[in-house]
Structure formats: C-alpha cells, structure tokens
Amino acid sequence: MTDAERDALFTEAFAEYARYMYALAYRLVPPQLSQDLVQDTLLDLWRGRAAYRGECSIKWWIGLMLRRKAALYRRTYRPPESLDAVEHTADHGPNPEEALLSAERRNILQREIATLSPQRRKAIEEFYSADSPDSEKRPNWAVKAKWRAMNALAKKREIQALRKRRPAA
User: Fold this and answer.
1) How high is the mean pLDDT in each 10-residue block of the chain (169 residues)?
2) What does pTM read for this prediction?
3) Is 160 part of a structural domain of the chain?
4) CB 77 within 8 A of CB 30
C-alpha cells in the first residue's frame, strides 16, 4: 500500500467512522473527555498511519487505538473539584457570629473550671493540654486512665467533704 493510498484510506475512514468513534468514546470515558479522546486518537492514528499494513479492517484498528487511548485517559484523569468544594475548603476565618459564640463558650468554660476543686482542675488541664510533659511519655490511653483515676479520686473526696458538712439526722 502506497503512502497516497494509505492517506486516502485514512481520510475516508475518519469521515466514515467519526460517529462510531464518538459513540465509543462516550461509553469509555466521562462525557467531558470524549471529544478530546477522539481528537487525540485521530491525531495518533494519522501520525502512525505508516504502521497500518491492511491486515485487519480499519474500523477494528481505529476502535483498538481508541480503547487504548481511553485506558490511558482513565488512569490519568482526575475530575476537577467543584466550585462548592473549593469554596468550603478555603479558610476565610470564622464569621463574626461564630467568633462570638466561640468566645462565649470559652468564657463559660473558664468560669466553670474555676469553680472546680484544684485536683479536678489539674486533671482536666492535664487531660486537655497538648504540651503536658506526661502526654509525650505515655500513650493517649494512659493519660486518659490517669485522668479517670484523678477525676474519681477528686469526686470521692468531694463526696466525703459533703457528707462531713451535712448535719446528722
């Protein structure tokens, strides 16, 4: 097959099988990529037309090349993030209402912690502080176990103190 015959064959095949290629591409890749896939495949087919020896039908060869290119597209394609997702991931800082609620919560917690006994306060502060010297030495479960023990001890002492204050009946 001469180069001129091959060029004519491919030009006719592209016109004849264009709908077939688009339909196949639409099934193989996401719809937004199907046109790009067909155009890339046509370009690769035209560049590699010298490799076509005429041993198979041109439609089969086009379909094979399109499937190979589609497999490459599927491996490398990453769908773009929607604008909604990008907007939610952007850090705009807290809005004024959230900042106010956060500040109010922090003040309430600080007032409530101030009313606790020193042992309970220490247990809570140690449990929630990230830079506690114990948190680096022991795993998290050990810190929690120590917190539970200190909290139970503080609770027990508070109950004992309340019982001493209560008048005998």
Assistant:
1) 80 87 89 87 84 83 90 79 56 68 80 80 68 51 68 78 71
2) 0.44
3) yes
4) yes
